User: Fold Acriflavin resistance protein from Cystobacter fuscus.
Amino acid sequence: MKHGVMPMAEAQAQRLDALRIDRSAHSRRRHGRRWLPWGALAVVLALVVATLVVGGAPSVRVAEVREARPGEQQTELSAAGFVASRRRSVIAPQVAGRLVEVAVDEGDAVKEGQVLARLDDRDARVMAARARAEIQAARQRLLAARATATRARNDLARAERLARAQVITRASLEESQALAQASSAEELAASAQLTAARRAAEAAQLQLSHTVVRAPFPGTVVRKLADEGAVLAPAALEQENIGGIVELVDLGALEVEAEVSEEQLPRIEVGQPALIFLDAYPDQAFAGKVRSVRPAIDRSKATADVNVQFDEIPPGALPDMGSRVAFLKEELPPEALTKKDGALRVPASAVVRSEGQSVVWVVRDGRLKRQPVRVAEKVGDEVALAQGPRPGTQVVVSPDNRLRTGRKVKVLTEGG
Assistant:
């Protein structure tokens, strides 16, 4: 009996073990799920750190080291400006009307008195014809009044002879005198009416001539402001360019308007020699002289306009070109205009003091390098370097304390 009972007990125990839940496997799965959120968070943090490391490069503005332009050793001061013309005008009609023809296009050179445009002149022609007819009518009235006055004067002379012969009464004589005076007044009135008619005809003819718009001076059409069909009105003083047809510029009267700070004005005088550098032709220098200093200060900028005329206007110069003017201590010989003195120039804000010496931060391959320089002198908003990076090297303008040697930086382009 004992041997029969034991196999039965073992079978029951095995069945119970099969029904028991394995807690260790469940615990392992639960601990695995618990670590999943922390692992994902670690990955996200790693990505954020990597992004900050990559995008954390500071942005810097740079300027290129350049060679000194001709005459910079003799430069008293320099100023920025732009090319302008002493004769520049928006051409508008003197009378209102509909534009029927524009006879020129942008870029056309025109002579003084050349036709630029025409307005609809039908109304003006009708008024001119009417004025001419009024002249004819006034002339006929004058002829009639003159004939009446002549007859009245003859009648008065006869009446005076008869009165002396006591053939007619005193009353008849006075009547003839009154008629003669009235007819003379009528003649004078008719003559005045003829004069008024002639003046009216002149005015009507002038109005007719204003429908043809002509160039007031020789120049070049730089802008076309209206096309055929536009209804124009004379330009109002408080509304610039209203009713304009074309903009005309005399390219033979070009000069440079430079802005000079008020504290620098005592260093400039009329007739002072200058060099003009156009942004469009940076490697060329053009001789000039100070023509005038405008006697007014721009309160918002604390500057005054100085007009510098070219000795010879360079081919290709156009209004509104950017330029820079170097005001010289003395006039340069012609050969000096093409000669460079070899000195280097950088913006004054690019040179800073670091560890007891003057340095600039050079950008090469997107990374910074500190380079010592030797400053010769300050010229305007630049400094001349006796020793420094070679021309064309990019240096940081107005560097801050974040910059370190070898640090990667992002160079800001123009407008960036």
About this structure: Confidence is low (pLDDT under 50) at residues 1-6, 48-55. The chain has four domains: 59-69+342-412, 72-86+251-338, 89-120+212-249, 122-210.
